[in-house]
Amino acid sequence: MRSSLDTTGIILAAYGTGSPRGQAVLDAFEERVSRAFPSHPIRWVFTGPCARPRSQSAPTVHSAEEAFRDLADHGVTRLAMQPLQIIPGAEFEAVLRDAASGQAGRRIRRTALGLPLLSGGDAVPSLARCMAEYRPGLEPGEALVWVGHGSLHAGQGYYDDLALALERTNAPVLLGTLRPAPCFSAMVARLRAAGYAKVLLAPFFCLLGRHAARDILGSAGNGEGETESWKARLEQEGLTVRTLHKGLLEQDLFAKLWIERLRSALSGLVSYSFPQASY
User: Where is pLDDT greater, at 219 or 38?
Assistant: First the structure.
């Protein structure tokens, strides 16, 4: 007999990855979600061009419509969809559209959408407090510099707010973004003003993909663009630079936060939800 909990499903939405390492990170996160919510079937939706192979335990799905249909076919009537995005930007808006269209005409009666990492309530100041204490491998006299993707979308304001909140903690932890300009020159000015000569450079990306590895860490693997990376440019400015080769989803602090947003979605404690479908 099917448990009443089995009627609630979970969709995890990510940009996707084509690398074995990225696939392993997504698999590990799925295992964490499965342990936290063992009665809920889990499916993935990918918002980017990369789609990873799926295990035998779940079918391959690449769109919200396919995921909704598959879960409905397995008896799911309620659904929590958690995007693994950092800000509510253009990619999150695509997830919103997918969630709305995926439910249309299906047997899913209610869908709740979890929030990105920096969105909702006091997410920014609370994350700044956590990050001020989170210093993975940081050496004395060294600054931990997180570098996010950045966006021309209004969601860039969340990065800016987090950067300001981190400054207010007076911790040796700073945040910059690859764009819009002049992010790099502004970071150099902040490091010099604070008297830092050493930097631990860390990507503020969900997954450590080729883009972050190349443009931030200067380790694309084929030399392409490495001399233009933040690492190379900071070294040109006379700073000593070490690098952290991990995406946020690989780090317990951030993985837990995304799971808490999913927990809120499952509890119906989110701002975004969609009305009961008619069928």
Answer: 38
**pLDDT, greater one: 165 or 104:** 165
Q: Assess whether pLDDT exceeds 70 at residue 119.
A: yes
- 3-state SS of the chain is CCCHHHHEEEEEEECCCCCHHHHHHHHHHHHHHHHHCCCCCEEEEECCCCCCCCCCCCCCCCCHHHHHHHHHHCCCCEEEEEECCCCCCHHHHHHHHHHHHHHCCCCCCEEEECCCCCCCCCHHHHHHHHHHHCCCCCCCCEEEEEEECCCCCCCHHHHHHHHHHHHHHCCCEEEEECCCCCHHHHHHHHHHHHCCCEEEEEECCCCCCHHHHHHHHCCCCCCCCHHHCHHHHHHHCCCEEEECCCCHHHCHHHHHHHHHHHHHHHCCCCCEEECCCCC
Per-residue model confidence as pLDDT tens digits over 64-88: 778 888 898 888 888 899 999 998 8
pLDDT, tens only, 4-27? 445 899 999 988 787 889 999 999
